[in-house]
Design goal:
The chain has 4 helices and 14 strands. The chain is mainly β and about 230 residues long.
């Protein structure tokens, strides 16, 4: 299997129709896509001057780097294939959740403990959109069409780089269970897909709450949807 740089998924051609819901994207099939991007309300203060991709938000800068973005359906479908996940049915779909990818890298001499599972969004009315637990996921998404995106594999944390090197076999050095504490070691980097409760269409103003080094932080975010190709 080809190795990947930390924080990047290779996008291949679309091979099947995957149903995917906002906030990330609303997809009927390979054409006619709606893409929703996260925009920081105060980009000068809180977002990198030259973000590597549209919609990616930098939460912590190097040497303790943390960024998030909404991956598209192709990225997640490719990840499922790289993880060798299979389904008993040819038809499969992503669960109607708000899925975000967090990329991280530690360039300090000390371990870095990340608590991504405690992050959540809140709208202007105070309604919260927390991370969905494994138990709730299993109770809610029982159809075989969801088996291609197993919780224990899709939402695990993967260490994909260590001391500037990439793994030789699988695309990761280490895998952390979704609900386990995440500790990023010296010169390690990787990513984790985190499933949040579904944020419905029409919700534009949000506050994102997260922890960095045990300090709770908040970030005002606006959602912007555009029709893609």
């Amino acid at each position: 299997m080809a190795c990947r740089a930390p924080g990047r998924l290779k996008v291949r051609s679309v091979r099947r129709c995957v149903f995917f819901f906002p906030v990330i994207a609303a997809i009927a099939c390979a054409e006619n896509r709606l893409h929703t991007y996260m925009i920081v309300q105060n980009p000068v203060a809180r977002q990198a001057k030259k973000p590597p991709r549209r919609g990616e938000i930098e939460l912590s800068r190097k040497p303790l780097y943390l960024a998030m973005h909404a991956p598209d359906a192709d990225d997640l479908d490719n990840l499922a294939e790289d993880l060798k996940l299979t389904s008993v049915t040819k038809y499969h779909r992503l669960p109607p959740l708000t899925l975000l990818r967090f990329d991280f890298e530690n360039r300090t001499a000390l371990p870095w403990r990340l608590d991504l599972r405690s992050a959540y969004f809140a709208d202007q009315s105070g309604k919260k959109y927390p991370v969905l637990s494994a138990d709730e996921y299993a109770k809610r998404f029982t159809s075989v069409s969801y088996e291609h995106f197993r919780y224990d594999a899709m939402y695990a944390a993967y260490i994909t780089a260590r001391a500037g090197t990439a793994p030789k076999d699988a695309f990761w050095f280490d895998k952390k269970k979704p609900d386990d504490a995440l500790e990023v070691g010296y010169e390690e980097g990787g990513f984790q897909i985190v499933p949040f409760e579904f944020i419905p269409a029409g919700t534009e103003e949000l506050t994102f709450y997260y922890n960095v080094e045990g300090i709770k932080k908040r970030l005002s975010i606006r959602l912007q949807t555009e029709r893609g190709s």
